[in-house]
Design a protein that fits this description.
Distance between the termini: 21 Å
Number of domains: 2
CATH architecture of the largest domain: 3-Layer(aba) Sandwich
Structural class: alpha/beta
Strand order of the largest sheet: 3-2-1-4-5-6
Number of helices: 11
Radius of gyration: 18 Å
Helix content: 25-40%
Order of helices and strands: EHEHEHEHEHHEHEHEHHEEEH
CATH topology of the largest domain: Rossmann fold
CATH superfamily of the largest domain: NAD(P)-binding Rossmann-like Domain
Largest sheet: 6 strands, parallel
Oligomer: single chain
Shape: globular
Length: 266
C-alpha cells in the first residue's frame, strides 16, 4: 500500500524514517507540511524519493494518509482522505472529536479512520470494558511546564510556567471541554474517551509539574467487567516536548499491523 504523511515534524519524520528503512507491504510516496520548503529539505534526507505536495493533495497520492499535523490543519488532511474512501491514520484525536461528522461520512464513503494508541496504554482494555458497562473513566496528566507552554488556556490566563516552583493544576473537567484549551495536549484523553464512555463523560485533570521530566498519564477505569489503573511515563521527544517518543512508534506499530500475518490486540 502507498503511504503519505501529513505533517513532517518530530512525529512525521520519525515515521518516515521507519518507512524509508522498510516496512513490508508499505511504500512511502508523499509527504506534506505547512512549510513546504522545509519539508522538501527534510524529504531529501530520505533514501526513498517522495513527492512533496499540499496537505489537501495527500489523499490523491496514497491509499493510506497519516495525519500528524497541527490540529488547526486537521481538516485539510482528513476530509480529502475520508472523501476518497482511503485509510486515515490520525493523531489529532482532539480535532477528530471536533469533526465527528467525518466518522459518519467514512461509513458512507468506505473510508477507515484509525487512531493509534499514541502516548496512551490500555486502549484495548477500555474498548473491551465498553462492550459491557463502564461506570467511570478518569485520567490525570502531568507534564513538565515546557510541554504546556503556549497552549490557548495558559496564554488566555497569562500563566507564567517558566517560574513555576510547584505542581499547578491547569484544568479539571471533561475531555471534550479540554480540547479548546489544550488542542495539542489532549489527544490521549480524546482517544480514551472515544474508546470508552465518550469525551464528554471522560474526566480529566491536566497539571504543569516542574518536578517531573516525563509526560505522565494515569488512568482509572471502573466497569462491571473489571476495575483497573494504568500509568505511563513517556520520554518527551527531543524536537517537541509536547509529545512523547512513543507516539511515532505507535504509528509504526499500527502500520505494521495493516499487513502483518499476526496481529496482537485490537
Amino acid at each position: 500500500m502507498t503511504v503519505a504523511i501529513g505533517g513532517f515534524g518530530a512525529i512525521g519524520r520519525a515515521v518516515a524514517g521507519h518507512l524509508d528503512a522498510g516496512i513490508p507491504g508499505l511504500r512511502l510516496v508523499a509527504v506534506s507540511a505547512q512549510d513546504q520548503e522545509r519539508a522538501r529539505r527534510r524529504a531529501a534526507e530520505l533514501k526513498t524519493v517522495v513527492d512533496v505536495v499540499p496537505l489537501a493533495d495527500l489523499a490523491d497520492a496514497a491509499e493510506v494518509v497519516i495525519e500528524c499535523a497541527p490540529a488547526a490543519v486537521f481538516a485539510e488532511v482528513a476530509e480529502p482522505a475520508v472523501e476518497a474512501g482511503g485509510t486515515l491514520v490520525t493523531l489529532s484525536v482532539g480535532a477528530l472529536v471536533d469533526h465527528a461528522h467525518l466518522i459518519d461520512r467514512a461509513a458512507e464513503t468506505g473510508a477507515r479512520i484509525i487512531v493509534p494508541s499514541g502516548a496512551l496504554l490500555g486502549l484495548d482494555a477500555v474498548r473491551a470494558a465498553a462492550q459491557g458497562d463502564i461506570q467511570s473513566v478518569r485520567m490525570v496528566t502531568r507534564k513538565p511546564p515546557g510541554g504546556l507552554a503556549g497552549t490557548p488556556l495558559v496564554v488566555e490566563r497569562g500563566i507564567d510556567l517558566d517560574r513555576l516552583q510547584a505542581p499547578l493544576r491547569l484544568f479539571e473537567g471533561n475531555a471534550r471541554d479540554a480540547v479548546k484549551g489544550f488542542p495539542a495536549n489532549v489527544n490521549v484523553a480524546a482517544a480514551l474517551g472515544l474508546a470508552g464512555l465518550g469525551p464528554q463523560a471522560t474526566q480529566l485533570e491536566i497539571w504543569a509539574d516542574p518536578t517531573v521530566d516525563r509526560n505522565i498519564h494515569h488512568i482509572e477505569v471502573v466497569a462491571d467487567s473489571a476495575r483497573f489503573e494504568m500509568t505511563i511515563e513517556n520520554v518527551p521527544s527531543d524536537n517537541n516536548p509536547r509529545t512523547g517518543r512513543i507516539v511515532a512508534l505507535s504509528v509504526v506499530a499500527t502500520l505494521r499491523a495493516m499487513t502483518a500475518p499476526l496481529r496482537i490486540g485490537a
